[in-house]
Inverse folding.
């Protein structure tokens, strides 16, 4: 039963990677002209990176390669909150709510994501590898001493991003535009 579930998990991860990559490639031509498309492509790219690395981790045979792939997975995990906020800001700007402070917060979010990523890649402060990495069916890193800081950052930015999307939806003037926001 475990093998079947592992296969289904790998299959779903591969489907997410394939479809996510297709969506990003399809929208690349429009990304230069449209702020929302650019932010959406960034978010989907980080999701694809995460799932692609996770798919490779399930096939890793050596603990060192599994740990490297799990840490590279954090490229997507660490940068996703910034991309979420970037998308929510782009939606608000589309509705006419332009804010320099939010634009600075987008940049600060990407910088924060890079700081968390550097901490994951080069230290054990956010996550660390367990001694028995390949013994587990679900290979994963364990929380480091400052993992809670990342969790608060992740959920805080996610909550603000959801609120911004809600605000953008309520700023829409027509019912059709509101439907497109959801």
């Amino acid at each position: 039963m475990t093998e079947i579930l592992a296969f289904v998990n790998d299959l779903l991860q591969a489907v997410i990677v394939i479809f996510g990559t297709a969506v990003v490639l399809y929208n690349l031509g429009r990304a230069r002209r449209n702020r929302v498309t650019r932010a959406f492509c960034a978010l989907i790219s980080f999701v694809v990176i995460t799932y692609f690395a996770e798919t490779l981790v399930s096939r890793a045979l050596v603990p060192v390669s599994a740990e490297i792939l799990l840490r590279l997975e954090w490229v997507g995990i660490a940068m996703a909150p910034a991309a979420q906020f970037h998308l929510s800001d782009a939606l608000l700007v589309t509705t006419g709510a332009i804010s320099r402070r939010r634009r600075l917060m987008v940049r600060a979010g990407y910088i924060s994501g890079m700081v968390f990523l550097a901490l994951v890649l080069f230290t054990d402060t956010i996550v660390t590898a367990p001694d028995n990495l390949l013994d587990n069916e679900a290979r994963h890193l364990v929380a480091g001493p400052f993992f809670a800081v990342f969790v608060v950052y992740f959920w805080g930015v996610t909550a603000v991003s959801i609120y911004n999307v809600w605000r953008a939806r309520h700023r829409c003037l027509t019912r059709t535009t509101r439907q497109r926001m959801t």
Remarks:
- The chain has one domain: 2-181.
